[in-house]
Design a protein that fits this description.
The chain folds into 3 domains: 12-356, TIM Barrel, CATH 3.20.20; 390-497 and 633-673, 3-Layer(aba) Sandwich (Rossmann fold), CATH 3.40.50; 502-630, FAD/NAD(P)-binding domain. It has 23 helices and 29 strands. The chain is an alpha/beta fold. Helices cover 31% and strands 17% of the residues.
């Protein structure tokens, strides 16, 4: 079959291993391990991406040594019991003619002793800025132990059926810590010159190759730029790649950017970073070595992959979040149906964000991510889940899969409900009072650096339209309209309503002389109010609502101050790796930050702010106050229908205002109500 991505779908040899295409499902954390061993969840997760057509899978890092246990649910690659789990994974992947490599690693000082109760190891006794725990500087005996543990871990991976080994020498590795002048302050043969700092990497390469032989591939993943003053930069990274190549034992070079603590935001970049932002790293390394080179960095679509390869920047391209969102990414590209790919938003809420909360990863777009091991039609009527209340209205009896389902609201929850109901055999209709789909997500996508949120709605609408389901817009639903559809089930997905705090009552969005006007973030994003002059954004939510509007107004020329009761502005942006970039932009745009502040009064143009940690109050004058306040569920229609004995369920914000992922999960549960 001809397709527009000829370079992407060429075979490539990585040493003794032939890979069927150039797309790599790169290594990333999953938190799937059980008691340090691979789990059935791992098997199903990797199997789904192999069935989706990816050429090469590289597993999450396998710990090489007992001193390395940086997060709770990781695979202990040194444990003798891992081989059986490895074989389950590799056999499942090989059935789809996909190759799979094991990444092995020791995190060194980028970890914690909380789980192992052992002192961390590092090249020098320097605490990592994130974990803030000082390691023990390793001695010669420790280094011998590190090298031998890599070799032993690699040998077990080979026994487990892996086609290759990738040595992580990059963003979260003790090897990078030896390579980097930031973390290696030694004056012996292991520190100082680049030759000395690279000595550990070369010894590990040699020991690993000796352990695994020449039947399987061996690669290294290198950090091309630590994005930190005084750290590794691209010129030195090229020299490190050349040293690896000269060993004669390495079959390819993978790349990364940043340090997985102080510059983590550069590794798993949010939508504030352009796709392909790290492409300069593989491009430079590829010019310096003859080995195949893998690129990474927000590759969202097949066209960008094809372009990177065709232009000679890389030989292969790593895709992680794109394949988390859509396991069939590669299959769809090869079949000329790339428009059906569920494009990753780079919102980082369920993948990166859940890792930071020590939970298994998920995806805001794909409710099946990490649940591939479960039956697709498992019952969902459980009093503990979001639709537990339906057990009362339905007397626990599920509806026929030929039922007529009316969905009210075309936001994320409503559209996902329609998809789920249709996929389970229902006849589906959707009505929406606005003139377009997306709900509050459509407003959020209007903020600076947040436009990719709209792709979630695009993806949902595409899937529905392919099945002949098209929302009817400009329709306000009431009991009469519901009855005219004669539905077997009504799904209320009417979202939430904005609110303003008690101290702002009596004030409105008109700017009268001598008075502060009060608005709310959704009104600003919707263009219904246009604050100017001195603007206070009072943020009680700690996520993108307040920070996005503050940046939007600063871009329009307003003099913006953002205040929050929390200890830092945009607290939850740290979890999604948006905070660092937002702080830099806020500084450049002159946005002032006020923390630990609560508004306790508004009179004329005078606002009284209380520092709640000290009890101190101050008064300040502003032309406008924009509040990011807790919304309320828009649930009046639900209760009206419930009172008229209509079979009805509510999902998303109309149940309780939360984030888009909750809307998607609850919408996906609707299909389980059908037999």
């Amino acid at each position: 079959m001809t397709h527009p991505y000829p370079n992407t779908f060429k075979e490539i040899s990585l040493g003794p291993v032939v890979v069927k295409n150039r797309v790599v499902f790169s290594a990333h954390l999953t938190n799937f391990a059980e008691d340090g061993l691979p789990s059935d969840r791992h098997v199903a997760y990797y199997k789904a991406r192999a069935e989706g057509g990816v050429g090469l899978i590289i597993t999450e890092e396998l710990s090489t040594h007992p001193t390395d246990w940086p997060y709770e649910k990781m695979i202990h690659g040194y444990a003798p019991g891992v081989i059986e789990g490895y074989r389950k994974i590799t056999q499942a992947v090989h059935r789809s003619d996909t190759k799979i490599f094991a990444q092995i690693n020791h995190n060194g000082a980028q970890g914690t002793s909380r789980y192992s109760r052992l002192a961390l190891w590092g090249p020098s006794a320097l605490a990592d800025p994130l974990f803030r725990e000082t390691p023990r500087e390793v001695n010669e005996a420790d280094i011998d132990s590190i090298v031998s543990s890599y070799a032993a871990c690699a040998f077990q991976a080979k026994q487990g059926g892996f086609d290759g080994i990738e040595l992580q020498c990059s963003h979260s590795s003790i090897v990078r810590q030896f390579l980097s002048p930031l973390t290696n302050r030694r004056s012996d043969q292991w520190g100082g010159s680049l030759t000395n700092r690279a000595r550990l990497m070369l010894r590990i390469i040699e020991a690993t190759r000796e352990s695994i032989g020449n039947e399987i591939a061996l690669g290294v993943r290198l950090c091309g730029d630590e994005v930190a003053t005084g750290g590794l930069e691209i010129d030195e990274a090229v020299q490190i790649a050349k040293l690896a190549e000269r060993s004669g034992m390495v079959d390819y070079v993978n790349t990364s950017i940043g340090i997985a603590t102080s510059t983590l935001y550069a590794i798993e970049a949010s939508m504030a970073f352009p796709p392909g932002y790290a492409l300069y790293i593989p491009s430079a390394i590829r010019q310096g070595v003859d080995l195949p080179v893998v690129a990474v960095g927000r590759f969202k679509d097949p066209a960008s992959i094809e372009k990177a390869i065709a232009m000679g920047h890389a030989d292969m391209v790593g895709v992680v979040r794109g394949l988390i969102a859509d396991p069939d990414f590669v299959k769809k590209a090869k079949s000329n149906i790339a428009t059906s790919i569920k494009s990753c938003l780079s919102c980082n809420q369920e993948c990166v964000g859940r890792m930071g909360l020590n939970r298994w990863l998920g995806c805001i777009e794909n409710p099946r991510t990490a649940k591939e091991y479960l039956p697709k039609k498992e019952p969902v009527l459980d009093s503990n889940n979001a639709l537990g209340e339906i057990t009362k209205a339905f007397a626990v009896n599920r509806l026929s899969n030929r039922s007529k389902v009316l969905v009210i609201g075309a936001g994320p929850a409503g559209l996902q409900s329609a998809i789920s109901a249709f996929n389970n055999g229902a006849q589906v209709a959707i009505v929406e009072r606005r003139d377009k789909a997306g709900g509050s997500l459509a407003l959020a996508s209007k903020a600076p650096y947040r436009s990719e949120l709209s792709e979630l709605t695009r993806n949902q609408l595409y899937e529905l339209r392919q099945n002949g389901v098209v929302p009817t817009f400009g329709v306000t639903a009431d009991l009469s309209l519901v009855n005219s559809y004669a539905p077997d089930l009504v799904v209320v997905a009417t979202g939430s309503l904005p609110t303003i705090p008690w101290w702002a009552r009596g004030f409105d969005t008109s700017k009268d002389e001598g008075l502060t006007a009060v608005s709310e973030v959704s009104l600003v994003l919707d263009g219904k109010s246009n604050p100017s002059g001195r603007v206070l954004v009072f943020d009680k939510l700690g996520f993108h609502q307040g920070t996005s509007v503050a940046e939007l107004l600063a871009d329009r020329g307003a003099e913006v101050t953002i205040a929050t009761p929390q200890l830092s502005v945009g607290t939850d942006l740290g979890i999604t790796l948006d905070l660092e970039a937002w702080m830099l932009r806020a500084y450049k745009k002159g946005i002032k930050l006020e923390t630990e502040k609560v508004v306790v009064g508004l009179e004329g143009e005078k606002i009284t702010l209380l520092t709640h940690t000290t009890g101190e109050t101050v008064m300040a004058s502003f032309d406008w106050v924009v509040v990011a306040n807790h919304p309320l569920a828009n649930d009046s229609l639900y209760f009206e229908l419930l009172g008229n004995q209509v079979k009805v369920v509510r999902v998303g914000d109309s149940l309780a205002p939360r984030r888009a992922v909750n809307a998607i999960i609850e919408g996906d549960l609707v299909g389980g109500l059908l037999k």
